[in-house]
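Quarterly update from the structural biology core.
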Amino acid sequence: MSNTDTFPNISFDYCGYQVLVTGGSNGIGEGIAQAYLAAGADVTITGTRASAGDYDKDLSAYNYLQMIATDNDNLQAVADAMTKLDILINNAGASLPDGKDEYEPEVFEKAVAINLTSNYRLAAALKDKLSASELPGGASIIGMASMSSLFGIEIVPGYGSAKTGLMGLTRVLGVSYAKSNIRVNAIACGLIESNMTAGMLEIPEMIQPHLDRTPQGRLGKPQDIAGPTLFLSSPAAQYITGQTLVVDGGYSVQG
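Predicted structure, tokenized:
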């Protein structure tokens, strides 16, 4: 994927910089990783499988680390494996973990651990390395929020609470980490075509109401999130921190 294929008439230059994209083996994370790679960055991705060779796709262009978001020792090992870092994309997440009901307290807690607590643990573990970055405008941490950060989506109480909490974490770290020359922002993603949403996309009665409410009349694609992500970590956004950018085709502003 070339830079121009991903972002017509837009170019980013991340040559010589180190990027870590958690959950970069598929979906939104893969789209973001591809975009940073096309912009010249040295990209490390994480996935839940033991090695990059365990996936039915070619991930050889990336450095690969296994990451289990509920394993605190593993999260520290991921952080320790990065000798230097300029940009952390906290993308890894999951709803309805193990296909179980998030109204069950243990499942609720696991959803929060995957989608919120792991984000903070990685940010804290990598803070010193990020603060040493020489990226113009400062290092960046970017989290992936969602429409469940803005609306009450009944089926995912744990995931929704975690994604809402992510917005608060973004504000707090935006204030605190500014002292270390690290900007912290998030993107609230609309409904994006990905592995996580694949089942939903096959049910017209679930998708059509969403499309009817979306002014742009379509679902998002991973590159729709990748572009804003590259912008937020670029010098063009050097005066932006603690913010959550909504990227949803207008869904959240439709009356």
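Residues 105-131 form the longest helix (27 residues).
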